[in-house]
Design the sequence.
């Protein structure tokens, strides 16, 4: 009997749970200004997130999925992406999207039930959120295929959750990425829960990263509470994909410090005490402690940042609340490149109905 | 959920102050209905109801501080132990909850029982029936599935039509229609009604002959009624000769034979002429020349029925005298009530050519003659 | 006995049948510990244990394929798809296998599965959570498609669907889940499949509908009654196979028909009903059959959602059309 294949799955961490840096700062994150920027973004994200939940609770926003405790995952990814890379999110990726030119008010528009929240900026090639989770890795593979056909030195980053990694489409995407050597990085944001299903029930696989092995691509785990590691590993993975057409699967580990969405109630299924225990590892406190120790941050700066972010978020909320809804006939106006004539009558009926409704 | 705890109002603050309640105990609220206005350190916030329900209790008064997560509002519910569960029973969205009890009444599995038999007819057949004014209920269907066919509808329409009489006017009736329309368009008629007291006429008098003589006498007084008028040329022709058209009713229609030169004829001669006309008109042998040339017309419509009328002038004549049914009436004469025999008269004149004064004087003269007041 | 909601009636039916028949197994995402995202399977894990109430990994095609395999082995799986918007990966399994395994084995193997899912719009949910695509299943030979519209019918029809030896797509109108309560005795009595239900008897116009639109249709019938128009309301309930006889009997009586469905207009189930009325009931009609439907658009996000769903005013306008046609 010969062993024909073995695999190893590395785990990466730079800043540990006690905020101690192991080794030097990685090349991709050497600039201290960038470190502070990462920290500031995480704080902004958390303040925005808290506000979004409150908006939902007071009836001003629809169902909203929190990113609490997962800020490093998305902020780190966003910092790693090059401008002309293409990003394919699942639905918790606010921290990444705001570094891609998407306005926070657009995020609120989306969850507030307005399609214009998906418009992003005019030249964006990024995909909008994917609610049928697990379907988007294939889209990423398709985008990567196009980039490769055109010989462009650009990469694709696609995210999904631990739950979505059980979907058939997920395996299909990994497989074709390997078979076709696509310039794509898959990130599984493993926050340990798929609504009420814990990671242990999702798969018998010891890591999700090792699903890469079955596709013949590289797989690794990263501490998702360590924004430095996240930024570094994603940067390197994108470089590999971009320059060598070598796809990578990163499983970034964090903990969901919230209900699945504002309509969920995790106390029904989440064992007592886990959340508090995991909170000790949370990313913002960890980074703050490191920055303060490195004399790059202090209480005064913190106060100022909190105030600044609150003001920013207030402005975002105001912009969102002051955005009037689309006209009713907008339902028809993006259905086709040009709306076929036979639907003009329905479009007109809809306009009339709206008049009737107000009259 | 039965107890609604104060949610985090967005500032991460520990509490908020009740400013104003929008509901009271006993109110039935719907999802999203504003419950209360809360004031935080930073803002004034409206709190909407997370569910539909009936308000059971309000946990606080305006001015009270409520902690985040503490009870704010209680809803009525079933006999369940009150919990502070925040289970919204969903993972997305907002399910409308109501306290409504579904009352559907009786539900029938399948179809409701059939009551009456129904008319079977294709839409085209129904449309034709509507167009032809045919009642589908009255048709016996001949179609293979028991449906009414196009032919069934057409047949019914034809049968109905033959019961009515539909024809186009010809001959005498057509002529009457034409003449009447023309009169209506041209003539400006005025009718004066008056009664003539015939009580003193000798018994056995030929009433028609009397009338003819009276007309002659009246024309002597007012010759302007024995005339023709042409509205286009504005020409009026006064006649010396008095030719009286006599309206005769027949099965075919109205004929007006003309008694020529009545002024020169005796009563007997006139009677003979009248009787001859009656025969020839009935036999349709009356000569066309006898139907023309009237200068004034007499219509004894009262021979059949009727009191007064507004008889139609046939241009170019300018007057027609109608006589209704001669009758006995109670009259006042010289202060006393008497039973007299009167003839109700209607004189229509064309006011284009005849004045009211002329007409009334004519009528007065006519009546005087009839009443023997010469 | 307390009145219960439609979703509670689902739970009640599942519990009853699981007690009665050991072969009934529930599988789906979050159906166990969480009791289902709408609590449709609340308490069942506690009572029947994890072998019979199975939280699955997140994969819809897997759920359908598993159910088919389990059913071929004689189990009676009740598979949940969290929302109809997520059923599409399973469409291949359902169409290519569930619907035809009996046929292609001449009855040696069969597929007694209930595929149940919340369906329809009106709960202010994010995108993909508001689908009404029953037509794509109604088109498939070998399937049944059943849509309850009240707690009592949810209970009786779900029992019937579980007991039926063939695959049933059971679509639960999420908008009605907690809308109203009704007395539903837990007596295990099933309602018949393949049959429409006449909810109101009337003489002037036939209103044919199903799912959440039953709510607006009954409200319209009440309004019409006040106007002196007697409307007969038929809840189709089993979309496939369609009980056209009940509908035809009603149309024969009234001569006027309005079909109401939330799903988009083109090739919606209303088109098939209308065609069948034209084939066999044309000579009873005094006006063309009208359809009141959703627009031929993607269901809009929450802000415009209310404008998409047909409302009572539209139903009344369609009735006016048929009443004043001739």
Sequence:
């Amino acid at each position: 009997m010969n062993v024909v294949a073995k695999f190893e799955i590395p785990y990466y961490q730079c800043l540990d749970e006690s905020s101690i840096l192991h080794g030097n700062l990685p090349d991709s994150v050497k600039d201290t200004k960038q470190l502070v920027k990462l920290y500031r973004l995480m704080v902004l994200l958390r303040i925005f997130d808290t506000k979004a939940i409150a908006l939902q609770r007071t009836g001003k926003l629809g169902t909203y999925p929190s990113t609490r405790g997962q800020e490093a995952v998305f902020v780190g990814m966003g910092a790693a992406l090059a401008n002309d890379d293409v990003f394919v999110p699942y639905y918790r990726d606010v921290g990444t999207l705001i570094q891609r030119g998407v306005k926070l008010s657009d995020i609120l528009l989306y969850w507030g039930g307005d399609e214009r929240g998906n418009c992003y900026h005019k030249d964006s090639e990024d995909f909008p959120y994917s609610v049928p989770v697990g379907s988007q890795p294939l889209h990423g593979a398709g985008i990567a295929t196009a980039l490769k056909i055109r010989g462009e030195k650009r990469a694709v980053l696609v995210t999904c959750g631990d739950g979505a990694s059980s979907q058939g489409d997920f395996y299909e995407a990994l497989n074709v990425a390997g078979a076709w050597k696509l310039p794509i990085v898959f990130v599984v944001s493993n926050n340990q829960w798929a609504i009420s299903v814990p990671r242990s029930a999702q798969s018998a696989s010891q890591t999700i990263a090792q699903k890469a092995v079955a596709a013949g691509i590289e797989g690794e785990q990263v501490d998702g509470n360590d924004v430095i590691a996240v930024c570094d590993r994603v940067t390197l993975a994108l470089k590999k994909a971009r320059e060598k057409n070598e796809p990578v699967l990163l499983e970034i580990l964090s903990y969901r410090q919230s209900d699945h969405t504002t309509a969920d109630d995790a106390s029904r299924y989440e064992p007592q005490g886990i959340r508090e225990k995991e909170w000790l590892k949370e990313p913002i406190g960890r980074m703050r402690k490191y920055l303060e120790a490195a004399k790059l941050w202090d209480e005064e700066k913190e106060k100022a940042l909190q105030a600044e972010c609150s003001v920013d978020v207030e402005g975002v909320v105001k912009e969102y609340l002051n955005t009037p809804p689309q006209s009713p006939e907008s339902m028809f106006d993006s259905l086709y490149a040009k709306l076929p004539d036979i639907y003009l009558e329905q479009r007109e009926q809809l306009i009339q109905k709206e008049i009737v409704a107000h009259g | 959920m039965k107890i609604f705890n104060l949610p985090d109002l967005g500032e991460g603050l520990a509490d908020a102050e009740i400013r104003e309640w929008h509901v009271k105990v006993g109110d039935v609220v719907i999802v999203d209905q504003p419950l209360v206005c809360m004031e935080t350190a930073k803002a004034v916030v409206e709190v909407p109801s997370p569910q539909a329900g009936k308000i059971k209790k309000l946990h606080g008064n305006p001015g009270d501080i409520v902690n985040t997560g503490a009870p704010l509002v209680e809803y009525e519910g079933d006999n369940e132990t009150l919990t502070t569960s925040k289970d919204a029973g969903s993972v997305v969205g907002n399910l409308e909850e109501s306290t409504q009890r579904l009352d559907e009444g009786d539900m029938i599995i399948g179809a409701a029982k059939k009551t009456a038999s129904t008319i079977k007819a294709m839409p085209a057949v129904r449309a034709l029936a509507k167009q032809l004014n045919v009642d589908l209920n009255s048709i016996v269907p001949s179609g293979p599935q028991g449906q009414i066919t196009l032919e069934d509808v057409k047949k019914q329409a034809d049968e109905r039509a033959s019961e009515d009489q539909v024809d186009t006017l010809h001959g005498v009736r057509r002529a009457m229609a034409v003449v009447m329309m023309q009169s209506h368009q041209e003539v400006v008629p005025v009718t004066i009604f008056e009664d003539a007291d015939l009580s003193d006429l000798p018994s056995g008098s030929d009433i028609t002959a009397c009338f003819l003589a009276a007309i002659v006498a009246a024309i002597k007084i007012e010759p302007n009624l024995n005339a023709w008028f042409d509205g286009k040329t504005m020409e009026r022709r006064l006649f010396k000769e008095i030719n009286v058209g006599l309206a005769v009713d027949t099965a075919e229609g109205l004929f007006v034979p003309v008694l020529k030169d009545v002024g020169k004829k005796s009563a007997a001669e006139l009677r003979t002429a009248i009787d001859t006309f009656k025969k020839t008109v009935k036999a349709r042998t009356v000569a066309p020349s006898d139907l023309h040339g009237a200068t004034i017309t007499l219509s004894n419509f009262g021979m059949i029925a009727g009191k007064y009328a507004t008889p139609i002038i046939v241009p170019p004549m300018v007057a027609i005298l109608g006589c209704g049914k001669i009758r006995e009436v109670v009259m006042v004469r010289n202060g006393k009530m008497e039973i007299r025999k009167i003839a109700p008269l209607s004189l229509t004149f064309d006011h284009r050519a005849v004045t009211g004064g002329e007409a009334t004087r004519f009528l007065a003269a006519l009546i005087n003659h009839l009443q023997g007041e010469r | 006995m307390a009145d219960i909601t439609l979703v509670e009636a689902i739970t009640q039916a599942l519990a009853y049948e699981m007690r009665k028949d050991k072969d009934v197994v529930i599988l789906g995402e979050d159906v166990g510990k969480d009791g289902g995202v709408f609590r449709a399977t609340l308490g069942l894990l506690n009572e029947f244990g994890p072998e019979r109430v199975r939280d699955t990994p997140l994969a819809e095609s897997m759920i359908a394929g598993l159910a088919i395999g389990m059913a071929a082995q004689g189990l009676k799986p009740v598979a949940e798809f969290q929302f109809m918007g997520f059923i599409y990966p399973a469409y291949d399994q359902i169409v290519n296998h569930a619907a035809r395994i009996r046929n292609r084995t001449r009855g040696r193997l069969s597929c007694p599965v209930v595929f149940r899912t919340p369906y329809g719009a009106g709960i202010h949910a994010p995108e993909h959570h508001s689908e009404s695509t029953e037509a794509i299943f109604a088109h498939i030979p070998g399937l049944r498609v059943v849509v309850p519209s009240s707690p009592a019918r949810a209970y009786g029809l779900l029992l019937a669907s579980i007991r039926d030896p063939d695959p049933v797509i059971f679509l639960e109108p999420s908008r009605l889940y907690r809308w109203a309560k009704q007395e539903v005795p837990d007596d295990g009595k099933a309602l018949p499949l393949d049959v429409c239900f006449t909810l109101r008897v009337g003489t002037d116009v036939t209103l044919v509908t199903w799912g959440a639109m039953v709510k607006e249709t009954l409200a319209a019938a009440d309004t019409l009654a006040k106007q002196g128009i007697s409307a007969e309301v038929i809840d189709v309930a089993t979309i496939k196979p369609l009980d056209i006889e009940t509908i035809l009997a009603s149309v024969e009586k009234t001569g006027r028909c309005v079909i109401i469905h939330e799903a988009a207009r083109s090739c919606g189930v209303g088109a098939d009903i209308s065609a069948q009325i034209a084939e066999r009931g044309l000579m009873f009609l005094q006006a063309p059959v009208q359809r009141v439907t959703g627009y031929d658009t993607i269901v809009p996000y929450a802000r415009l959602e209310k404008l998409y769903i047909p409302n009572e005013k539209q139903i009344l306008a369609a009735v006016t059309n048929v009443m004043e046609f001739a």
